[in-house]
Structure formats: structure tokens, C-alpha cells
Design brief:
Layout: E1 2-7, E2 11-18, E3 21-28, H1 29-32, H2 36-43, E4 49-54, E5 57-61, E6 64-69, E7 85-89, H3 90-102, E8 107-112, E9 116-122, E10 125-127, H4 156-159, H5 167-173, H6 180-196, E11 200-204, H7 205-208, H8 213-221, E12 231-234, H9 240-253
Parallel strand pairs: 1-4, 4-7, 8-11, 11-12
Antiparallel strand pairs: 1-2, 2-3, 5-6, 8-9, 9-10
This protein binds zinc ion.
Length: 258
């Protein structure tokens, strides 16, 4: 049994992997995050490994990792597990899940929820750079609107869940596709496609997973040279990050990663 955890600003999801099946549960981050190690090890004592996806930027250091920034978390949880564990950025876990389940070795994953995250999979592995590679939400798209990270004019400040007023209604009515934030999102995806040239882009998260992949595809292609092809997918699984964290723990700790 391997436990995958997704620690988000509001909810913490747990996906328990047995063979290749998952059982999922959701908890309030405010109730479990402070003692997450104890909570997980008490409730899932048979776990042989633990994977954590967290809404934070991580920097890899010689003895593990250091959390550099977590704009959407009120506090950083203590994560010292007695079992073998991996901790990674939540969008990296999402991208890993999408790469494995959609079957692409080279993929760019983007999560649109409260914030906007991004993760790069190159030849089946997470590409981290110095830590924050792929963070498309904090690339400049114009203007000077203040972002949660302290920067200005970032994509997240125009298309993150916190920045789009009435986002749920706009998705339901289709109005979302007419807004400036969506236009900037598609331009940003096209830019990422030219830099990374992945086989596919996977869009997920509470907001991203509810968007129409064919509309995104059409609007991304507008900004790309006609010879560049990419497949855009949406991933509608709310537990994609937790599942991806479990898969990453399995493949990293038991070295099943290709
Ligand atoms: Zn930012």
C-alpha cells in the first residue's frame, strides 16, 4: 500500500494505492496539515511508502528539499515520515499522473485552481530545473496586476481562481472563453509549447479540469506556427495530484521509473 497526499490551501486529499487501484478521501487542510505525518502514519499504518504533493515551490538541496514559497498555504506543514517518502510540488505530481495515465513521455501539465501551477515531464521524468521549472502561473503576461507571489502582471493574477470573479458561473455559461484571462492563458500555453515542445499539454485542477479541451486547443493553435503540433487534454480527476504523488513515490522509492 502506498499513500499519496495532496496538501492544498483548503483541502487535503488522500489517495491510497493498492496494486493499481485507488481509494480516495478528502480532509480539511486546517484540521490535518499541522500533524500530517502523524495523521497519515496512524490511519494508514500498513503503508510502505508515502508521496506528498504540496502547493509550494521546492528547491532541491543536498539532504532533500527546502520549501521556498507557498503563496496559497497559510502554514507549512511538518513532514517527517518514518516511512520512505517523496515530497514534490503539486503541479509536478499532476503532470506525472497525466503523463502516466495519458501515455505521453513528454508532457506539460497545468493546474488551474485557486492558483495556477505547472509541471514538466521530459522523457518520463519530472524536470525541476533548480526547483520551480514550469511555473507558468508566474510568467509575465502584461499589465501590472498584483500577484499572490509578490510579483506583477503574472498569468495567475488574470486567470487563477482567486482572480476571476464568478468563475464557476462563467464556466457553466461558457463566458470564461470570452474573458481576457482565458486569452492570456492560451497565449501562455502556446509560449510553453514552443519552449518545451511536448507531445501533449494536460490541463487540470478544479477550474482547468472543467474547461473544454477542444476550445483550448483551437485558441492555443492561433499563437503557434502551423507546423507545431500538440495535443491538449483536460484531466477531470480531482484526485490527480494525490494519485500522482502515490505513483511518484512508487516509481522513485522502488525504482520502477523507466
Ligand atoms: Zn506570481
Amino acid at each position: 500500500m502506498i499513500v499519496g497526499i495532496d496538501i492544498g490551501g483548503t483541502n487535503t486529499d488522500v489517495a491510497v494505492m493498492k496494486d493499481n487501484d485507488f481509494e480516495v478521501r478528502t480532509f480539511r487542510t486546517s484540521e490535518v496539515a499541522a500533524n500530517i505525518s502523524e495523521f497519515i502514519e496512524k490511519n494508514w499504518s500498513e503503508a510502505v511508502a508515502i508521496g506528498v504533493g504540496i502547493a509550494a515551490w521546492l528547491k532541491l538541496v543536498p539532504d532533500g528539499f527546502r520549501i521556498v514559497k507557498a503563496p496559497n498555504l497559510s502554514r507549512i506543514p511538518e513532514m517527517t515520515f518514518s516511512k520512505p517518502s517523496v515530497v514534490d510540488n503539486d503541479a509536478n505530481c499532476f503532470a506525472y499522473f497525466a503523463s502516466r495515465t495519458l501515455g505521453y513521455e513528454n508532457l506539460f501539465g497545468v493546474t488551474v485552481g485557486t492558483g495556477i501551477g505547472g509541471g514538466v515531464i521530459a522523457k518520463g521524468k519530472i524536470y525541476r530545473g533548480c526547483g520551480a521549472a514550469g511555473e507558468i502561473g508566474h510568467t509575465y503576461v502584461g499589465g501590472d496586476r498584483e500577484c499572490k507571489c509578490g510579483g506583477r502582471g503574472h498569468l495567475e493574477a488574470y486567470f487563477g481562481g482567486w482572480a476571476v470573479e464568478g468563475v464557476d458561473r462563467k464556466i457553466e455559461t461558457g463566458e470564461i472563453y470570452e474573458c481576457e484571462g482565458f486569452r492570456l492563458f492560451c497565449i501562455s500555453l502556446a509560449n510553453a509549447v514552443m519552449i518545451l515542445h511536448p507531445e501533449a499539454v494536460a490541463v487540470g485542477g478544479r477550474i482547468g479540469g472543467r474547461l473544454d479541451a477542444s476550445i483550448i486547443q483551437e485558441n492555443v493553435e492561433k499563437w503557434l506556427p502551423s507546423v507545431i503540433e500538440v495535443e491538449i487534454h483536460t484531466v477531470k480527476d480531482d484526485y490527480a495530484v494525490a494519485k500522482g504523488a502515490a505513483m511518484l513515490a512508487r516509481d522513485t522509492i522502488f525504482q520502477t521509473q523507466p
